Amino acid sequence: MTQPTLIRREHAARPLLLDLYSCAGGAGRGFDWAGFDVVGVDIRPRPNYPFTFVQADALEYLSALIASGEIERYAFIHTSPPCQAGCALTVGTNRSKGWGGTHVDLVPPTRDLLEASGLPYVIEQPNGKAEIRKDLTLCGEQFGLGVLRHRNFELGRWSVAQPAHVPHRGRVRGWRHGEFFDGPYVAAYGNGGGKPTIPELQAAMGIDWTDVREELTEAIPPAYTQWIGAAFLAQVRAGVAA
Prior knowledge:
- The protein has a single domain, classed as Vaccinia Virus protein VP39 (Rossmann fold).
- About 30% of the residues lie in helices and about 20% in strands.
- It contains 7 helices and 10 strands.
- The two termini are about 30 Å apart.
């Protein structure tokens, strides 16, 4: 097992959430706003992660928590398995370049462990070929953000109604096939073709604690998980959720 490195940044006092494949904490920040204390786990160092952070393999760490019984400390698990094997933005590029043969689909083993945990959970993935149930789809326009960034969520051991999708106000700004298009949204991926500056990305995503482009382009807007976390906690208070 990868030796975990635990970095404590906050004292837990609220329901505890496990944020697996955490990246720099876009999802974690939203759950914090919703009312959770958050522990993030990522295999890479994440010095900008704003909460308690464990550097470890996410699957190995979750398996160890289940085996030891420590999983009972947690109320909810959020997961964002790496999506290179199925993301719509990368599948075509990988195919055209002859890449992608080594990408491992981590969704099935993640789901298996989540089911074994006995806890309510979320599996997040972008649009593409990832084999998850699309129990919930969220878009930046639903939250007044400067990105569209559609994200799909499989919900385990709980459910919530799909909110209405809000019509888009225009195009995503940038170059398409040699032509530049203006629009109210920025493209929160890549590093060329009229892509936004770091400050533009931060403002569009609602993220101000990291200025690393890779972390910003990989992040979930915190507004999404704030909505999910608030919906779950409302059900807990009403005696509906697990």
